[in-house]
Amino acid sequence: MRLLILATLSIGLLTQPLQARIGSQSGNPDFDASGEVDFTDFLLFAGKFGARQGDERYEVRFDLDGDGEVGFGDFLIFAGSFGKEVPKAMGKIYWTDSGTGGSNPLQDDKIQSANLDGSNVEALLTYDNALRLPRGIALDVAAGKMYWTDSVTDSIRRANFDGSDIELVIDTRTIGGQSLPGPATTPRDIALDLTSDPPKMYWVDAGRANVDNGKIQRANLDGSSPEALVTSGLVNPQGIALDVAGGKMYWTDSGTGAPNPLQDDKIQRANLDGSNVETLLTFQNFLRVPRGIALDVAAGKMYWTDIVRDRIRRANLDGTEPEDILNTRTFGGQSLGGPATAPRDIALDLTSDPPKMYWIDAGTGNVDNGKIWRANLDGSSPEALVTSGLVNPHGIALMLAP
Fold first, then answer.
1. Which of 15, 169, 293, 323 is most exposed by smallest CB count within 10 Å?
2. Does position 7 have pLDDT exceeding 90, yes or no?
């Protein structure tokens, strides 16, 4: 066994010039995130050798050259890196932009990514990839897939993190085999439960014209076995977050269905099967068109954005002790009159020191002044990370460094 390993590594060392040519397109061979490509990484790699995309053993992180197979080309990359230290990977931000700023409104639609500090912005998918008002976004890091909702084609799609291999996962107009003409359903936010067997995606469906026909639905990640979990009492649901360990899902409802539109605003939760719906916060708790929602389960807190009062708030998971964290109108001590900013989705990085919250600011009037911000969980040290090229950003998801 040792001789085989040494012989294998020797071949790799002899082929380093080839590795140098393809290394710029490769993944990270430090599979155990130890900071060095070592024998443990070799064992992990050997266990995946020969796996192809679609096989049960296949994982995209071992496909270092991205050709859909863990093969000899990947081995050459691995062997050329053996024994070397690997800089710790920087995490990524992924977000959707619903456009509406150009002469053809949909042509600004895009999905982009950047490093967690806002550097290295990349456009992954655009109008040319049949993107039509993308809203929510969620990541399956182990499988190398991003999922998003499309509110014009009423669909959920997925692709690799680099935007390749786009797939239609589910058409929300035809769930249950029923064909519904026109924009009969409007998927908004999406969240993944990767611990269930099989893994599940959950999404909020805003329904039509804010007439109390919103839904919360789930399905397997391939779109099979769709289920409507919550089918009544939802006027205009927007954001969703999962507490998988606690068996709960949380969502925001932006209301606008009552004589006083804001009186339908609420944050609710239920069991993951849709049972035991509870109303946690309402208009009486100064809720004004809540949108994004994120959970810090360990601390027992939920965070949400409020687009009428332009602020980020938090409360205990049972809705008690609501408090303002950030007033997004007054960043940097500058008072901006009126609804100068419009916070949308929010995501938490609970691994950083100190922990951070990231959120989307849609700006004003779809005029290319959207932003991506982050701050500490208490609202201190706010930073504008991405400040140009965003027309109408909505959804955000984080891929955190190992």
1. 323
2. no
Beta strands per DSSP E along 106-214: 110-115, 122-126, 134-140, 145-150, 155-160, 167-171, 187-193, 200-205
Burial environment of residue 286 by CB neighbours within 10 A (0 to 12, 13 to 18, 19 or more): middle
In order of 59, 84, 309, 338, the CA distances from 384 in angstroms are 34, 35, 20, 20
Amino acid present at 78: F
Cα–Cα distance measured from residue 334 to residue 328, given in angstroms and rounded to the nearest whole number: 10
92-399: which CATH architecture?
6 Propeller (2.120)
| Residues in the chain, overall count | 402
Domain boundaries, the chain: 2-81, 92-399
Q: How many Å apart are CA 80 and CA 82, to the nearest integer?
A: 6
Output DSSP code: residue 81: H
CB 326 within 8 A of CB 375: yes
Whether the CB-CB separation of 105 and 47 falls below 8 Å is answered with no
SS (H, E, C) 159-176: EECCCCCCEEEEECCCHH
Whether 25 has a pLDDT exceeding 70, the answer reads: no
- Take residue 213 and report the two structure tokens written for it: 């026909």
d(CA 220, CA 197): 9
* Residue 127 three-state SS: helix
Alpha carbons 357 and 349: distance in angstroms, whole number: 6
Answer positive or negative: Cα dihedral of 370, 375, 380, 382: negative
Whether the CB-CB separation of 193 and 206 falls below 8 Å is answered with: no
Angle at the Cα of 395 from the Cα atoms of 393 and 58, rounded to 5 degrees: 130
- Angle of CA points 303, 304, 307, to nearest 5°: 155
Nearest to 377 by CA among 400, 354, 401, 402: 354
Taking Cα atoms as reference points, which of 124, 66, 131 lies closest to residue 98?
Answer: 131
Pair 258, 211: CB distance under 8 Å = no
Q: Residue 143 contacts by C-beta under 8 Å, 6 or more apart in sequence?
A: 59, 60
Report pLDDT for 175: 67
Say if strands 301-306 and 290-296 run parallel, antiparallel, or are unpaired.
antiparallel
pLDDT in tens, 145-155: 999 999 888 89
